Amino acid sequence: MFSAASVLCVGGCGGVQSALDPAGPAAAVIADTWWLMAIGATLIWALVMVLLWYTLARRQDGPEFAHGTSLIVAGGLVFPSLVLIALLVYGTATGRSVMATEQPVDLVVEVEGRQWFWTFRYLDSDGRPAAATRDVLALPLDALVEFRVSSADVIHSFWIPRLGGKIDVIPGRVNTLRLRADVAEPMRGQCAEFCGLQHAHMSFEVVTLPAAEFDRWLAAGGDTPLPSSALTPADPAAPATEPQP
Ligand SMILES: [Cu+2]
User: For residue 220, how far is its CA from the centre of ligand 1 (angstroms)?
Assistant: First the structure.
């Protein structure tokens, strides 16, 4: 029974949209943190259950427990404080690598969220849009990409679980997120903020290409077909097209 449940759980950790199946360094750090916290929480839960069992199993008329105050101070104050401080230090240390703020950027992509689709504009080395896609994100492999995300209407959230964390997409504001894909496997992104009735359909496909192939695609203005459809002309001034049904 337990092993069957374990197989189901671990099997569910994979897939195109699983944060526990990382395809980039930021997602790998996040997945490691998740496993650390899941295993730690399980061990602490087991410890609490043992203490609870011990308490309930003691005879009511047994001898008085001599170390009650010490146990409360150690288990209720010292131990949680140590765990939280350790997590704070670990989170602060790993947060910098997740943000990748000190590394040079290889590509900038402007992301616009709109009810209920995504538009991606790929900037060239001069900062001008060289290509654009809709609901398909093309990425060069092993390249650090800076996403500059904004919204045309309501608050959305940009998230590619296999590559890293999510970031809010807010009207009137540009937020940045840096991600790197180091595995050429199928991936999917998803709006992670309820943004209207069609929110669940606000997803996109991530297509990873070898750097040389991506450069050729970008140099051609995105006219070369990607392994998917939904390409739009490279016109940054073009009005957004109608939402998907
Ligand atoms: Cu949305």
Answer: 30
Query: What is the CA(241)–ligand 1 centre distance, in A?
Result: 16
Q: Give one DSSP letter per residue of 216-227, joined into a string.
A: HHHHTTT-SPBS
Q: What is the pLDDT of residues 114-164, one digit of tens each?
A: 999 999 999 998 999 999 999 999 999 999 999 999 999 999 999 999 999
The verdict on pTM exceeding 0.90 is: no
Q: Residue 166 Cα, ligand 1 centroid: separation in angstroms?
A: 12
The shares of helix, strand and coil residues in the chain, as percent rounded to the nearest 5, are 35, 25, 40
Q: How far apart are CA 139 and CA 208, in angstroms?
A: 5
Domain ranges of the chain: 16-99, 107-232
CA torsion angle 30 35 41 47 (round to 10): -150
- Topology, domain 107-232: Immunoglobulin-like (2.60.40)
**CA atoms of 132 and 126, how far apart (whole Å):** 16
Which residues sit opposite 118 in a β-bridge? 113
Angle at CA of residue 211, ends 126 and 224, nearest 5°? 80
Cα→Cα distances 130→29, 112, 124, 187, Å? 32, 16, 6, 23
Give CA–CA dist 189/202, Å, rounded: 9
